[in-house]
């Protein structure tokens, strides 16, 4: 953990994230060249609402409307859903309205987080 | 400027609607993004609380050039011990609410953290009132 925190800022483009996790960009493809610096993995929206970080990728297995709402309120633009979670039409619509980027990958929360950490994304805490 | 929203208890598909509207208004008023985030995070936590715990409620928002004042009032079970409810980790949320990613006992402390002034009053069997203020 210490080692990773001290690394110089490694950033990843959304399309690089997608490629490394066999993920599909299901919403906001026009933002795929944008860059993220940090990752945060949680299924607990209360935890997500406490983060004060920009250019953050939220990695979660919690796929419902409140996940999108939480991202909207917390100014999080990028969400990665793991384990190929179903993204409902309602979720998609709300994400589009807020110009969010949604990705979906087949990997588990642990594996997706591990790979992105290994690639150099920084943790929030 | 004043706006009022009705909140329906138990209706999770609409939870966050009022917070979303307030966010749009504050953006239009060119309030600093960090201040907007604090306000809407606090409001969203409170709105989800009404949906999760109460039968119905109202949110009244007053915005003037210096501050935003938000009055939330619900008809619901109320809170028996407010100091306990303010403790991080304490929650009476249902399994359904927890499955939505809430109910970890972090809402009220997070509201306090994100506002400049915060008051809470509750009567068991009647409901809960929250008043929060954030200066621009």
3D structure, described in words:
The complex is a heterodimer of chains A (125) and B (136). By secondary structure, chain A is of the alpha/beta class. Chain A has one domain (2-123): 3-Layer(aba) Sandwich (Udp-n-acetylmuramoylalanyl-d-glutamate--2,6- Diaminopimelate Ligase, Chain: A, domain 1). Helix content of chain A is 36%, strand content 22%. Chain A is built from 6 helices and 8 strands. Chain A has a 6-stranded mixed beta sheet. A two-stranded antiparallel sheet of chain A has the order 1-3. In chain A, α3 links the parallel β4 (38-41) and β5 (56-60). Chain A is globular and about 40 Å long. The N and C termini of chain A lie close together (9 Å). The mean pLDDT of chain A is 93. Chain B has 136 residues and is an alpha+beta fold. Chain B has a single domain, classed as Heat Shock Protein 90 (2-Layer Sandwich), CATH 3.30.565. In chain B, 37% of the residues lie in helices and 29% in strands. Chain B has 5 helices and 5 strands. Chain B has helices at residues 17-28, 33-53, 82-85, 95-99, 107-114, and strands at 2-8, 56-63, 67-75, 117-123, 127-135. Chain B has a 5-stranded antiparallel beta sheet, with helices on one face. In chain B, β2 and β3 form a beta hairpin. In chain B, α1 packs antiparallel against α2 (33-53) and α2 packs antiparallel against α5 (107-114). The chains are: A alpha/beta (125), B alpha+beta (136). At the A-B interface, α3 and α4 of A face α1, α2 and α5 of B.
Give the radius of gyration of chain B: 14 Å
Structural class of chain B: alpha+beta
Number of strands of chain B: 5
Largest interface, C-beta closer than 8 angstroms, per-chain residues: A-B, 21 and 24 residues
Task: State the low-pLDDT regions of chain A, or none.
Answer: none
Our count of helices of chain B gives 5
CATH class of chain B: Alpha Beta
**DSSP strand count of chain A:** 8
Q: What fraction of the residues of chain B are assigned to beta strands by DSSP? A: 25-35%
* CA distance, first residue to last residue of chain B: 15 Å
Domain count of chain B: the total is: 1
CATH domain fold name of chain A:
Udp-n-acetylmuramoylalanyl-d-glutamate--2,6- Diaminopimelate Ligase, Chain: A, domain 1
**Amount of beta strand of chain A:** 15-25%
CATH class of chain A: Alpha Beta
Strand order of the largest sheet of chain A: 2-7-6-5-4-8
Alpha-beta content class of chain A: alpha/beta
Bin the helical content of chain B.
25-40%
CATH superfamily of chain A: HprK N-terminal domain-like
Name the CATH architecture of chain A.
3-Layer(aba) Sandwich
Sheet having the most strands of chain B? 5 strands, antiparallel
What oligomeric state best describes the polypeptide chains here?
A: heterodimer
């Amino acid at each position: 953990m210490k080692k990773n925190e001290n690394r110089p800022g490694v950033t990843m483009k959304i399309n690089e994230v997608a490629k490394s996790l066999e993920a599909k960009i299901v919403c906001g493809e026009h933002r795929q060249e944008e860059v993220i610096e940090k990752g945060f993995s949680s299924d607990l929206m209360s935890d997500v609402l406490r983060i004060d970080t920009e250019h953050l990728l939220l990695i979660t297995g919690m796929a419902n409307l409140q996940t999108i709402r939480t991202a909207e309120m917390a100014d999080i633009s990028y969400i990665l859903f793991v384990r190929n979670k179903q993204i409902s039409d309602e979720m998609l619509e709300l994400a589009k309205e807020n110009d969010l980027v949604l990705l979906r990958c087949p990997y588990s929360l642990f594996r997706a987080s591990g790979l992105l950490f290994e690639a150099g994304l920084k943790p929030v805490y | 400027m004043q706006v009022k929203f009705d909140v329906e208890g138990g209706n999770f598909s609409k939870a966050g609607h009022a917070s979303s509207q307030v966010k749009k208004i504050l953006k239009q008023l060119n309030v600093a993004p960090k201040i907007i985030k604090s306000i809407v995070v606090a409001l969203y936590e409170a709105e989800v609380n009404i949906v999760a715990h109460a039968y119905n409620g109202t949110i009244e928002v007053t915005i003037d050039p210096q501050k935003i004042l938000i009055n939330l009032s619900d008809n619901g079970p109320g809170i028996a011990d407010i100091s306990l409810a303010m403790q991080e980790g304490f929650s009476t949320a249902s399994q359904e609410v927890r499955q939505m990613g809430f109910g970890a006992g972090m809402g009220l402390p997070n509201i306090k953290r994100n506002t400049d002034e915060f008051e809470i009053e509750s009567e068991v069997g009647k409901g809960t009132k929250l008043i929060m203020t954030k200066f621009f």
